[in-house]
Amino acid sequence: MTTNPIDTAAPAAAATTQSHTAPAPAVPPDGPAGPRLSPGQARWGLAAMFLGSFSLVTAEFLPPGVLTPVAQELAVSEGVVGLSVSVTALTALLTALGLGSLFPRTDRRTLLVVLALGAVVSNVLVAVAPSIGVLMAARLLLGAALGGYWSMSLVIATQLVPPDRVGRAMMVVNAGTTVATVAGVPLGVVLSAASGWRVVFVAIAVVTVVTAVGMRMALPPVAPTPGIGWSATGRALRSPGVALGLVAIVAVIGGHFAGYTYVRPALSLLPGADVGTIAVLLALFGVGGLIGNFAIGAVVDRHLPVLLLAVPVAIGAGVAAVGVAAAVPWLAYPAVVVWGVAFGGVLIVVQVWITRMMPDQVEAGSGLVVAAFQTAIILGSAVGGLGVETIGVGWTYLVAAVAAVAGGVLVRSTLSRRYSDGVAPV
């Protein structure tokens, strides 16, 4: 990165509405806007969050990259190993919705550090797992860390930067996700071929230890925001357009994961494909994701309505193209780049969307978005596995593409509904 978008970071905006269950702040606020941070403090805080995204997402999506060797060693089908992504998403969903209610007064920085250490334990257990049952149990723990991390990351970003820079702040945080796909997952494929898949999980456990230390040192204490708890979640779901938008997000992200969870078997259908070819294609997906993260993150604050439709359509186009690439092999290369660009920006788009829809309930809204993502991962990976086993890879990918495009049309409509109810765009 040559330009840091947070150099002008000022105090973050706190939520403007108070809940009757609003917790006491973890630290005394410095005025109505909350703790005041220097640009350097904001930079280091976002760097620590970047590292958290990288380590957790690498661990989350290593199974698709090492699907075949894990299945062979544990004597199960690739579809069963693919369900480890669904298992992870299940606990992530529950954690995203319930963590704030369980710890309504706990410093969010402390929660993140504890969750990161839980991810370390998970990765070590996977590395020594003697059976698929142990591996699945370990992935449940990783899911808890993921759900808690993503539900808190948007809250922390809103306290590090002003409201009109939330998109750019999340661009930095979410860059960890795209770097994980550029470097983490492809390197995992190569390392698993050279040293075995168990070594890969030991390596990511070490990286996650560094992550926990970095977050503890770089982040300031972060107080819970107003509007958390189960009652706040219920009110959030009743906000105009929010429930419909969450359904749409499930369709978009579910379409992505119905394809991505089984991307290695899909790419293996290409004539002459080997481990090296698959690693290159996954790296191209990651490069596209990195480009999409920064390109879309730089403009999302100003062009949200256009991107709400354009990004899902691009995901659908990329998925569909990969689905038919066995018949047209050269198509796989531009397809994974387009798919990666779109997926690299989709999380930022959705995060900015929820802050526009619910500016006074960011933590509750963030939890709902994470829950929608994890629901989509569960459904997408499960339905994708069923499709691969029954109708084949190509048709599964085409169905996934249709779901992504339909979801994009639906989520775009929620902004119009919101504004028609008298809520002005930000």
TrEMBL record:
It holds the Pfam family MFS_1. The chain crosses the membrane at residues 44-62, 82-103, 110-130, 136-157, 169-193, 199-219, 240-263, 275-300, 307-330, 336-355, 367-388, 394-411. Residues 1-24 have a biased composition (Low complexity). Its main location: membrane. Residues 1-38 are annotated as: Disordered. It is found in: Cell membrane. It is a multi-pass membrane protein. It comes from the Bacteria. Residues 45-419 form the Major facilitator superfamily (MFS) profile domain. Keywords: Cell membrane, Membrane, Transmembrane, Transmembrane helix. This is MFS transporter. It comes from Isoptericola peretonis. The lineage of its organism: Bacteria, Bacillati, Actinomycetota, Actinomycetes, Micrococcales.
